[in-house]
Design goal:
The protein is an alpha/beta fold. It is built from twelve helices and 14 strands. The chain is globular, with a radius of gyration of 21 Å. The two termini are 16 Å apart.
Length: 341
């Protein structure tokens, strides 16, 4: 079975790699080449610089993020190295796509539903279209028959499955070592996020802790390699995720919890989202709404005894393992794929 997917989020795409290639034995492909953009089939936005970053072979990003198209061509396929997840992606040009038979096309943003349906109508009449929903998009009125959602469940009339995006639990796991006095953020472009003031205020009133801000355009730069990201999480006392807008899925929160580390989080943004199932105030997380008095958060952290903190870490891990079962979800996904319309 061959599946073609768009590519806009590295963590999401790697989760599709783990699902379709590693678990199901399918072949997963993504686009490469600016023809996708020029002919209207890549519609993340209308900026050519962004399109070049995602589609142009050998492109070097202008920010400090890692290149997305570093690889080589073999026959009609480009083999792209995923430096962060240490895997390889198969990418094809639009011309190769037209001459290859696919069973499924997967769109992961609403802007791609219409162009992907056009691709099916013109070149892949045998293929089925899946909409993979990783954020809380408004999909009212969109022509979606098959929904694969890594969000909190909601009402949908059609073929559907709700699941968690997979990541490597052999890497994101407890280290067995006590953490350092570190509080770490993995919020991209933190200085333009609503939680920025909370972060810098907490850092200012807690000089006994080291604060790190990782991600695109962040003070401490991007972290390359999931093993390095996991090590930083394992070494951190808390994750900082006071983020405006929240996340549909919430990779960072799930990663921290899998490592057995509690997070400082704006609970109101997440309580009704998928990651919210992991969050129990004062058990797996410390609540800090955007604009809150951060001195209260600092006091709560400082008042924890070693046993209380160790209990929070164990609760975080236990809650993750209670909510996330990739093997069980695989069975539901197989049924969903067998019922594609």
């Amino acid at each position: 079975m061959k599946i073609f997917s768009d590519f806009h989020h590295e963590g999401l795409y790697h989760s599709l790699h783990l699902l379709f290639e590693k678990r199901l034995g399918w072949e997963l492909y993504r686009p490469i080449g600016l023809e996708w953009f020029k002919e209207g089939y890549w519609a993340i936005n209308n900026q050519e610089d962004t399109a070049r970053q995602f589609l142009e072979i050998g492109n070097e990003p202008k920010d400090d993020t890692i290149p997305l198209n570093d690889g080589h061509e073999k026959g009609d396929v480009y083999y792209i190295q995923d430096h962060h997840n240490h895997s390889w992606q198969k990418a094809i040009t639009l011309e190769t796509f037209k001459n290859t038979k696919f069973d499924v096309l997967l769109a992961s943003i609403p802007q791609h539903i219409k162009p992907f349906q056009e691709l099916i109508d013109k070149y892949q009449p045998q293929a089925k279209l899946i909409f993979q929903m990783g954020n809380h998009f408004d999909i009212t009125g969109l022509p979606i028959k098959n929904l694969m959602a890594s969000t909190a469940p909601f009402s949908f009339e059609g073929n559907k499955v709700f699941y968690h995006q997979e990541f490597d639990l052999g890497t994101f796991k407890p280290s067995g070592n006590p953490p350092e006095k570190m509080i770490t953020s993995f919020i991209n472009v933190l200085d333009k996020n609503g939680g920025m003031v909370n972060y810098y205020t907490l850092e200012n009133i807690m000089p006994d802790y080291q604060f790190f801000s990782y991600g695109g355009q962040c003070r401490d730069g991007s972290v390359v390699g999931i093993e390095n990201m996991a090590r930083i999480m394992q070494n951190s006392a808390f994750g900082f995720h006071v983020k405006s807008g929240g996340d549909g899925f919430g990779h960072v929160i799930h990663n921290f919890m899998a490592c057995g580390r509690p997070v400082i989080v704006n609970y109101s943004e997440y309580k009704n989202q998928l990651a919210g199932k992991l969050l129990i105030p004062d058990e797996t997380c410390i609540v800090a709404e955007i604009g809150d008095d951060m001195s209260k958060v600092a006091e709560k952290i400082r008042s924890l005894t070693p046993l209380q903190y160790e209990w929070m870490c164990q609760r975080a891990l236990d809650k993750f393992l209670e909510e996330v079962d990739y093997d069980k979800e695989e069975r539901h996904i197989r049924k969903f794929l067998g019922d594609l319309t």
